[in-house]
Amino acid sequence: MPPAKQKPVLETDFVRALGELLNDLSLAEIAYEKGDFRVRVTRQQAAMAPLAAPAVTVTEAARPAAAVGAPSEDYGSHPGLLTAPMVGVVYTSAEPGSPAYVSLGDTVAVGDTVLLIEAMKVFNPIKAHRAGRISRVFISNGVPVEYGEPLLLID
Amino acid sequence: MPPAKQKPVLETDFVRALGELLNDLSLAEIAYEKGDFRVRVTRQQAAMAPLAAPAVTVTEAARPAAAVGAPSEDYGSHPGLLTAPMVGVVYTSAEPGSPAYVSLGDTVAVGDTVLLIEAMKVFNPIKAHRAGRISRVFISNGVPVEYGEPLLLID
Amino acid sequence: MIQKILIANRGEIALRILRACREMGIRSVAVHSTADADAMHVRLADETVCIGPPPAQESYLNPVAILTAATISNADAIHPGYGFLSENADFAAMVEEHGLTFIGPSPEHIRLMGDKIAAKRTVREAGIPVVPGSDGSIDSEADARRIARAIGYPVLVKAAAGGGGRGMKVVTDDGQLAEAIATARAEALAAFGSGGLYVEKYLAHPRHIEVQVLADLHGNVVHLGERDCSLQRRHQKVIEEAPSPVLTPEQRSKIGALVVRTASALGYRSVGTFEFLYEDGEFYFIEMNTRLQVEHPVTEMVCGLDIVREMLRVAEGSELGFEQEDVRFVGHAIECRINAEDPETFAPSPGTIAEYHAPGGLGVRIDSALYAGYRVPPFYDSMIAKLIVSGADRRACLARLRRALAEYVISGIKTTIPLHQRLIDMPEFIDGRYDVHWLERVMRGEH
Amino acid sequence: MIQKILIANRGEIALRILRACREMGIRSVAVHSTADADAMHVRLADETVCIGPPPAQESYLNPVAILTAATISNADAIHPGYGFLSENADFAAMVEEHGLTFIGPSPEHIRLMGDKIAAKRTVREAGIPVVPGSDGSIDSEADARRIARAIGYPVLVKAAAGGGGRGMKVVTDDGQLAEAIATARAEALAAFGSGGLYVEKYLAHPRHIEVQVLADLHGNVVHLGERDCSLQRRHQKVIEEAPSPVLTPEQRSKIGALVVRTASALGYRSVGTFEFLYEDGEFYFIEMNTRLQVEHPVTEMVCGLDIVREMLRVAEGSELGFEQEDVRFVGHAIECRINAEDPETFAPSPGTIAEYHAPGGLGVRIDSALYAGYRVPPFYDSMIAKLIVSGADRRACLARLRRALAEYVISGIKTTIPLHQRLIDMPEFIDGRYDVHWLERVMRGEH
Predict the structure, then answer these.
(1) What is the ipTM of this complex?
(2) Which residues from chain A sit within 8 angstroms of residue C100, using beta carbons?
């Protein structure tokens, strides 16, 4: 059974505090992780640069802080990268308290359910697209993911 | 004595006819010369291209037709190029009917008066900036010139 | 009070809504397909969520993805823009069921006006004239023939669920009727999933004149005058203007009062547009658009209102705060829809914008999400910019439009700017003597 | 009727005038230095004439070159823009002597108002209040001391021929007077070629409020309301707005009527601006600008007029065609002058524009000759763009200005956009509580 719907609680005050810290200290980025809670705040450019060339960070910076998972820079073209087929909230186990479908280092077969993504109260099983070992986990339980966002790396 | 002020007569109907011909035949340029009368019409781009790259022709096309002398593409950096030091009307002789200061093929010394440019009823002698032979004449008597426009080439 | 709006759209209208949000201090969430990751509205939004791959069915037309994005971003309202899900009553209902504010009319009004037959019946009962025709869906060819003869040929056979010219046939005599019905029904089934047809009088030289209404949740309704959108090609508007060159102030007041009374009687909310054919001084209702329209800026320019801002305000529950007599019309405005298309063949021309330079100065407004280096994706509508020009009167407005079009530089792709330059220099346009068929005739070389 | 106008200027104002010409069907001649061969106004003009090398003295300030260009291009009128030769009475006279129309006031009015002492005497006689001070040039230190004591310290020692802050010193007591006079006289001699000085009351917290007038050749004069230009740095205006946040409609009408009466009495023609210091409800005339001003667009936005068009119309001899009571003020407008300067040190930043993207949408106007790839030359004024934003009220206007500044992209050089973003977010600006000294205090870090 999928878990009862948990609307992710966004820790806005904490995120705000991190943001203020970032500005006070003139930092470029703060990544924070505790249990399944993960935040990354990066500084937005003073004026948006809506021009072509190298402005890729703008989108990143503007993303909802709590939706930002761990970086995945080098895996974009990796054949083992499993990405979110839909926007939603990702769950690592069938219900709260039950064991995770997979953990780092586990071996999976093609078609094994590795995660759930909930979109509008429907829990969609996410299946391994190839056999192999889980060599990276980009998400944690209960975080929102965008379409195309990296979930797992199956080596 | 400088010639009595002659306001250049602009043959607007003729220029218009050339322009219509240009458009009818989808030509890029018509250059016309008869005696000391010289016209060049070139086609303006449909929408002005106020952007950087290769739009140099716009200025050229937009110039008053009668002010356009013969082309001078290759002489811009030639040390013998004598350019107009002011905007005005150029005269090749001291007064109407008198012989030209210089003609094609003449040899001049530094400081020789080679032309006059009239600006607001003042006739300014234009002097050879170096000695040599007049190898090109870009203007004809009575035509208006802009600042920096090629006048003569002294080889 | 609305704190955060998810904008369920793309392109210039997403940017338009985003600008209104920013000016009102409301946070914005841009949703986008992977094809639009670099789009202007995505770059400028406070938050962004990628909701799917390029095909609109899997992204901008995917209600589940959009509602999920609203949930994970904690948005409290959704603005649908135009097109996509903006007139999808089921989507509007889903939004409300999830406790979010749908920035637009009620699902019931969207549904009512989405059914073209029910819409006509409703407004006719409220006293608005409609094009004479079948009261409802026609059952048989004989049925159609009887009605066609009663109202007189030529007639139009139209899909009840239709729009955009699909499922629509002109019939000039009895002999063509059977085939027209068969073709229209097939097209209607393919395009809208419903084969219901109706028959109505075909007007020979009508203008398309539409009236903008604005309503709050407290029963206050005003109209913002008319737009003349007669310049159409394949039922797509090309140039729109306000006011119409042919309407008198008396006609404006009269038709305005009629639509306001109708919207009031219906309990309508938010913005909406009553679209009419206009011929020989008579208005014939054709349909109502229950959403913000592409051409809303011309109305903004002549009545000095920010329609999107008003739309957000009334969605929050604010009262309009002004009456019909406070709405004043000053000057003239014209909008050119600039498409990424060959200006002669209308073949789409997606690709990368090399140079982009917008015209400026007094009376010139640009609503566009373009920028130099932007890649116009091939997946969506070809409209890439709206040039809106205003002036003290129609003549001054036209002169300004001419100079603004000449200043506009969009290179790297083909655009319809040269078409607009050609059209606005034609005597019929200069004199305002055009009808909904004029542009088609021009394109066929009949001018 | 004017057929062809030579525009004796460069940059955004040359483009502004060119646009008005184009919209009125008047041909334009752009004159330019070699440094401006690629400038926007040159690219868009109907005809162009290169009149000299980069230094303004040999090109834009060279009357002979400009008149010669007018002759060879057969122009029948010259518009001087602002700066350069616009307030040079001798130039205006030369233009008229050559049978051309000078688009501006008569040479006599330019000359009269160019002499600051004569100007004050003239308007005071017409009933306009002036800053208390010496009636004319001061002859000696003793003379200055007597006047300073009579009106009370602090006083200002100013060049009679001055402007732009040169030849101007604040004196707080008798002891500083001698040195201030010596320094001001030296500066005045260097800058204006005349050492004439006068003494006037120094106001502690004045605002700069100016009133725009427009007059035809038939004795019709109207005022177009005021602009508040109190945000200044080194006597250069930085942000201007209309209406002033502190004026009541009654004050506007009263000062407006006064300047209209004065302009009428003088037989003034074309546009002009009466500049005042305003403190504690009182106006003190400081000078009159006998030309089009940089900040004229904010007035256009609130009164719905095209001031350059009106200027051309009245130069042709047309009547204004409207009365004072037809001039209505609607909404609020703010202009930011964007300079090619470091926003903190104000060091000039000429160079090549890499990316250029102007903000758009409702209520946003850009007056700028910039484009991507344009090289800002180091020879002229650093102002490269004016962002003018309008809204229903000051608050809406400010919100729009904030979003428009955030959308504006000018890369490759430094600009004062970040300074504007900072200033408009400060509580004193938001509340309209600023005077002519406020920006200097902000820049000194006192805020």
Answers:
(1) 0.78
(2) none
Q: How many domains does chain A have?
A: 2
CA-CA distance, D186 to D203, in Å (whole number)?
A: 24
Bridge partners, D47 (sequence order): D29
Residues of D in contact with B88 (CB under 8 A): 68, 72
The nearest alpha carbon in chain A to D408 belongs to A47
Which residue in C16, C207, C291, C337 is the catalytic one? C291
pTM recorded for the entire structure: 0.84
List B5's β-bridge partners, or say none.
none
Ramachandran sector of residue A105 (left: φ over 0; alpha: ψ -120 to 50; beta: rest): left
pLDDT tens, per residue, chain D with 447 residues: 999 999 999 999 999 999 999 999 999 999 999 999 999 999 999 999 999 999 999 999 999 999 999 999 999 999 999 999 999 999 999 999 999 999 999 999 999 999 988 999 999 999 999 988 887 788 888 999 999 999 989 999 988 876 666 778 899 999 999 999 999 888 888 887 888 898 988 898 999 999 999 999 999 999 999 999 999 998 899 999 999 999 999 999 999 999 999 999 999 999 999 999 999 899 999 999 999 999 999 999 999 999 999 999 999 999 999 999 999 999 999 999 999 999 999 999 999 999 999 999 999 999 999 999 999 999 999 999 999 999 999 999 999 999 999 999 999 999 999 999 999 999 999 999 999 999 999 999 886
Point out the residue among B47, B49, B53 whose CB comes nearest to the CB of C417: B47
Tokens, residue C287:
């349909």
In a domain, A1, yes or no: no
C385 reaches B (C-beta below 8 A): no
Chains A and C physically touch (3 or more Cβ atom pairs below 8 Å): yes
- Domain with residue B81: its CATH number is 2.40.50.100
- Residues B148, B93 share a domain: yes
Whole-angstrom distance, CA of residue A121 vs CA of residue A113: 18
Using CB atoms, pick whichever of C297, C356, C358 lies closest to residue D362.
C297
Q: Which domain holds residue B100?
A: 59-67+75-154
Report the residue count for chain B.
155
Biggest distance spanned by C-alpha atoms of chain A: 48
Inside any domain, residue A79: yes
Contact D360 C368 (CB under 8 A): yes
- Interchain CB distance below 8 Å, C355 and D372: yes
- Cβ count near A105 (within 10 Å): 9
Determine the residue among C15, C16, C21, C23 to mutate to test chain D binding: the one whose Cβ has the most chain D Cβ atoms within 10 Å.
C23
At least 3 CB pairs under 8 A between chains A and B: no
